Amino acid sequence: MVPLLLVLLLALILFGAGFAAKALWVVAVIVLVLWLVGFVARPKGGSARWYRW
């Protein structure tokens, strides 16, 4: 009984880690797209930066 519970717990942990990694990839792609849009749509003129940091 204990080995079965350990296997189920391990499967649950690995599924959660896989879901978190996929969610982080989605967030990274969204941030990259927003950065590219801001880079392309920056104001014309010298060294103007479109970000505030």
From TrEMBL:
The chain crosses the membrane at residues 30-51. Pfam families: DUF5670. InterPro entries: Lmo0937-like (IPR043727). It comes from the Bacteria. Keywords: Membrane, Transmembrane, Transmembrane helix. This is Hydrophobic protein. It comes from Streptomyces pyxinicus. The lineage of its organism: Bacteria, Bacillati, Actinomycetota, Actinomycetes, Kitasatosporales.
